[in-house]
Write a structure and sequence with these properties.
The protein is mainly alpha-helical. It contains 18 helices and two strands.
C-alpha cells in the first residue's frame, strides 16, 4: 500500500520526485564511497613492500580493479536493462563489503589483493544509479545531488575512518567497520531508486529516449562522433588524475599544509565547495534548449579549470594560504569533473538527438581515466619518491591543468563546427536491442 502511494506521488508531484530521486541517488552512491574510500584515512606510515610504499600499492590495487570494472561497464552498463538494476546493485555492494572483510582478516601485504577485489564491483555502481536519473528535464538537479558525493562523501569516509583509528580500531579493521555501518544505507538507497518511475513523455520529448545500446550501435556512435568523444576522454583523463591524487592522498596533503590533527577538516573544508558547485550547476536545468545548455557546459568547464590554475599559481607564490587554495581550487576542479559525470554527456545526447545512454560515454572516459591514475601513482613512487604529496599535487594541478584547458578549448571549437548540421537533422535513431 505504501509503495503504491509513493509511486502515485512520484508521478503527480514534481517537487516530491526531485526530493525522492535526489535523496535516493545520494544515499545509494554515498554507500559506494563507504566501501571504497575509508582505507585512505589511514596513512600506513613507514610501511613498504620492497621499494613500494604500502599505501600506494593499496590505492593502485583498488584503482586497477576499479578501472577493469569501467572497461566491463562500457558494454555491461550500456546494455543494462531496467529489470536488472536492482539485483546487480545488491550483488556488487555485497562483494565489495566481503572484500573489506577479507582485507581485515588477511595479513599484510597479502591483503592488498582484497582491495583489488573491492574495486572490481564498485566501478559499476555509478552507471546503475545514473540510469535512474538520465533523460529527464530535472536531470541536472538530480545529477548535482548525486555528484555531491564526489566532493563530500570521500571526506565523510575519511572523517569516520580517522575517528575510528583515533579510538583504537586498527588501520586494516576500520574499512570493514565503516562498510558494515553503512549496509542499511545501501539498502535504503536502492529501495528508493527502485521506486522512481521512468522518464515521462515530456522528458523524452525534451531529452530524447534513453535505451540500451548493442555493439553495432556503439560502433556507429563512435564512427559519427569519434573526434569529440576523443576530446572528452582526454579531458576527463586529466580531471580524473588530478581529482584522484587530491582524494586518495588528501590526508597527506592536509598534513603537509599543517592541518593533520583535525579529522573533521576533510569534511568541513569541502562543504563550501559543495554548496557553491551544486547551486551553480543545478541551475542548468533551466536551459530548455539542449544545444545552448551543452555550450554553457563547455564554457563552465573552461572557467572551472582556469580557477584551478589561477588559485594554484597564487598559492605557489605565497599570496593565499593552504586552506583557501584547497577550498577554492577544489571548486574549480569539481565544476568540470561533475559536469563530465553525467550532465555534459546528457546534454550532448540531447543536443544531437541521439537515441543512446550516458553510461556508454561515461564508462569509456572512466576506464581510461582510472588507468591514467595508476600510471601517475607509479610515477610518483618511482620517479618522484621523495617529493611530498603537497608539492606533487601542486605541480600536477599546474601542468595537467594547462593541458586540460587546451583540450577543453579544442572541444569548444570543434563543437561549433559540427553543431550547425546537427541542428538541421532529425533525431538519430539506431536499431534497438530487445
Amino acid at each position: 500500500m505504501m509503495s503504491k502511494t509513493i509511486r502515485l506521488w512520484l508521478t503527480k508531484h514534481p517537487v516530491f520526485i526531485v526530493w525522492w530521486a535526489g535523496t535516493a541517488a545520494f544515499l545509494a552512491y554515498l554507500s559506494m564511497y563507504m566501501y571504497r574510500k575509508p582505507f585512505t584515512a589511514a596513512t600506513f606510515e613507514g610501511e613498504t613492500v620492497g621499494e613500494m610504499d604500502y599505501k600506494i600499492l593499496l590505492v593502485i590495487a583498488q584503482v586497477i580493479g576499479y578501472a577493469i570494472s569501467k572497461f566491463v561497464g562500457i558494454r555491461l552498463i550500456s546494455e543494462l536493462k531496467e529489470s536488472q538494476r536492482l539485483k546487480y546493485f545488491i550483488l556488487l555492494i555485497l562483494i565489495a563489503f566481503l572484500a573489506l572483510v577479507g582485507f581485515m582478516l588477511t595479513e599484510s601485504p597479502y591483503n592488498i589483493f582484497w582491495l583489488f577485489v573491492n574495486g572490481l564491483p564498485l566501478g559499476l555502481i555509478w552507471g546503475i544509479v545514473f540510469q535512474y536519473l538520465e533523460g529527464r528535464k530535472i536531470t541536472e538537479i538530480l545529477t548535482v545531488i548525486l555528484s555531491a558525493n564526489f566532493i563530500i562523501s570521500s571526506g565523510i569516509a575519511k572523517t569516520i575512518g580517522q575517528w575510528m583509528i583515533q579510538n583504537g580500531i586498527s588501520d586494516t579493521t576500520m574499512p570493514a567497520m565503516v562498510g558494515l555501518l553503512f549496509l542499511p544505507v545501501s539498502l535504503i538507497g536502492i529501495y528508493m531508486l527502485s521506486m522512481i518511475p521512468p522518464p515521462s513523455d515530456e522528458d523524452i520529448k525534451l531529452r530524447t529516449k534513453r535505451l540500451p545500446m548493442d555493439s553495432f550501435q556503439r560502433k556507429q556512435f563512435l564512427k559519427k562522433y569519434g573526434v569529440v568523444v576523443t576530446f572528452f576522454v582526454i579531458t576527463y583523463i586529466i580531471l580524473t588524475v588530478i581529482r584522484d591524487v587530491r582524494d586518495n592522498f588528501g590526508v597527506e596533503i592536509w598534513q603537509n599544509l599543517g592541518y593533520g590533527e583535525n579529522a573533521g577538516m576533510y569534511t568541513m573544508a569541502e562543504l563550501p565547495v559543495t554548496l557553491i558547485v551544486l547551486f551553480t550547476l543545478g541551475l542548468l536545468f533551466l536551459f530548455k534548449n539542449n544545444k545552448t545548455a551543452y555550450m554553457v557546459n563547455l564554457l563552465l568547464n573552461v572557467a572551472g579549470i582556469l580557477i584551478l590554475l589561477v588559485m594554484t599559481l597564487l598559492f605557489s607564490a605565497g599570496r593565499i594560504d593552504g586552506a583557501t587554495w584547497m577550498i577554492v581550487s577544489g571548486m574549480g576542479l569539481f565544476i568540470p569533473y561533475i559536469l563530465f559525470n553525467g550532465i555534459l554527456f546528457d546534454r550532448f545526447i540531447g543536443a544531437f538527438r541521439i537515441t543512446a545512454n550516458v553510461g556508454f560515454l561515461m564508462y569509456i572516459a572512466d576506464a581510461f581515466g582510472y588507468l591514467a591514475s595508476v600510471g601517475i601513482m607509479l610515477y610518483k613512487n618511482f620517479g618522484n619518491k621523495n617529493i611530498s604529496w603537497l608539492d606533487f599535487y601542486m605541480v600536477l594541478c599546474l601542468i595537467a591543468g594547462s593541458i586540460c584547458l587546451v583540450f577543453m578549448l579544442l572541444t569548444l571549437v570543434y563543437t561549433k563546427q559540427i553543431s550547425k548540421p546537427a541542428e538541421a537533422t532529425s533525431e538519430i535513431v539506431l536499431p534497438q536491442i530487445t
